[in-house]
Amino acid sequence: MASRHPSTGGGKKNQKKEPPALVFLKLCYTVYVDNYVTSNNSGVAQLLSGVAMMPDVIRMLTELQNQVSALQRKLMEKDSRSEKSDADGWYDTKRARKYLSDMSEDTFNKYQHSTDVKLKGHKLDGKTYFYKADLDNFMRLYDLKSNGLA
């Protein structure tokens, strides 16, 4: 069995990841040696032109990262505006369930169809929508009935 270097702890688990720059330099060196050994000077020229383009590639990646960050900010702003604007609006079934304390689908269906206090839904194109005020009224009435007050 081959002996392992003591500083690595003997296994791959303890090995540190090499920095990307070092990996890139090793790759460049390997390509350089492969092309030098085969006397293919055009390969060296291609390698050097690729290295010369690295600042442009980094600049493009930075621009893309900035654009993605700007889009993420816009989406977050849009989400926060939409939550404020339709806070008193219509909810689909999934959102209504979430509004009512992440109620399970079965429980939600039970309250919609088979209890004394029913959720009031409105059908449109095969989907059921719930008005937020109706959901609030359901919760108030259900609370009163469950406490024997109504």
Q: In words, what does this structure look like?
A:
With 150 residues, the protein is mainly α. The protein has two domains: 18-85, no CATH class; 90-146. The chain is 62% helix and 7% strand. It contains six helices and three strands, in the order H-H-H-E-H-H-E-E-H. The protein has helices at 20-37, 41-52, 54-85, 93-99, 105-113, 132-146; strands at residues 90-92, 122-124, 127-131. The protein has a three-stranded antiparallel sheet. Strand 2 (122-124) and strand 3 (127-131) form a beta hairpin. The protein is rod-shaped. Mean pLDDT is 76; it is low at 1-10.
Strand order, main sheet: write it out. 1-3-2
Estimate the global geometry from the Cα principal axes.
rod-shaped
Please outline the major beta sheet.
3 strands, antiparallel
How many strand segments?
Answer: 3
Unreliable runs:
1-10
Please bin the fraction of helical residues: 55-70%
Number of discrete helical segments: 6
What is the typical, i.e. mean, pLDDT?
76
Strand content: 5-15%
The span between the termini is 82 Å
- Number of structural units classed as domains: 2
Structural class, from helix and strand content? Answer: mainly alpha
Order of helices and strands: HHHEHHEEH
Provide the gyration radius in Å. 32 Å
